[in-house]
Amino acid sequence: MQQRSGGSLLVEIQPFLVITDQDYILLDSGLGYRNPDGVLQIHQHLINHGVNPMDITKVLMSHLHKDHSGGISTADPVTGQRNLSFPQATYYVNAQEMQYAFDNDGKSYHADDIRILRERDNVVFTEGDGSIDGYITYEVTGGHCPYHQTFLIDTGDDKIFFGGDEAPQISYMKRRFAAKYDYDGKRGMELREQFKERGIRDGWTFLYYHDTKVPFGKLTQ
Ligand SMILES: [Zn+2]
């Protein structure tokens, strides 16, 4: 999926689906765009791969910038009524990120897309670091935005790391630099060093949300 934002900057994005023995896990929810025929693009991608969107059991959100959270909910084109795009899933969102998104509604955040999270029961607002069902761990990182979180899914066979915008592209993992658009560029740089070290040591598969050329892979020295 692509989004043109301001000027001529083209943002390419891809949410991920991880299927484990017990879950269909979606990692970030995409832009929330519809196809010309009105079907949500992310729903169509899932259907094309034989997955019913109703089968998604968990939606793990790294943060709530609109290019990651636009697909959390969709408005009915006729009634305008908002519904969760994955009504059978439990959504995991950092509690402070939720508040921060409302306090900073406008440029990077779009409160209308995410307000529904406060009105539904199937949402877990995470605080700090923790774990989900004994095999998914999350850490608040705070480099890209103050309450950004990352996820590590340990299936027993594989360790799958979703760094969200702390590790958005493979090229970011290969050179040391502070990104201007990060909330805390120096912290972002240090986080990438740390993830790289842990990822090489423990054999993580990295998922890169903003890298459509190299969407995932393991890192080597
Ligand atoms: Zn992003």
Residue share in β-strands: 25-35%
The first-level CATH class is given as Alpha Beta
Bound molecules: zinc ion
Order of helices and strands: EEEEHEHEEEHHEEEEEHEE
Number of strands: 15
Main sheet: strand order? 10-11-12-13-14-15
Strand count, sense and barrel status of the largest sheet are: 6 strands, mixed
CATH superfamily: Ribonuclease Z/Hydroxyacylglutathione hydrolase-like
Shape: globular
From the N-terminal CA to the C-terminal CA, the straight-line distance is: 31 Å
Question: How large is the radius of gyration?
Answer: 17 Å
Number of domains: 1
| Count of alpha/pi helices | 5
Give your account of this protein's structure.
This protein is of the alpha/beta class. The protein has a single domain, classed as Metallo-beta-lactamase, Chain A, CATH 3.60.15. It is 19% helix and 26% strand. The protein contains 5 helices and 15 strands. It has helices at residues 41-48, 66-69, 95-103, 111-114, 185-202; strands at residues 2-5, 9-12, 16-19, 24-27, 58-60, 73-75, 82-84, 90-94, 123-126, 130-132, 136-140, 149-154, 159-162, 204-207, 216-217. The strands form 4 sheets. It has a 6-stranded mixed beta sheet with strand order 10-11-12-13-14-15. Strands 3-4-5-8-9 form a 5-stranded mixed beta sheet. The chain has a two-stranded antiparallel ribbon with strand order 1-2. A hairpin with a 3-residue loop joins strand 1 and strand 2 (9-12). The longest helix has 18 residues, at 185-202. It is globular, with a radius of gyration of 17 Å. It starts with a strand and ends with a strand. Mean pLDDT is 94; it is low at 4-8. Residues 65, 67-68, 165, 210 line the site of zinc ion. Belongs to the metallo-beta-lactamase superfamily. Residues 12-210 form the Metallo-beta-lactamase domain.
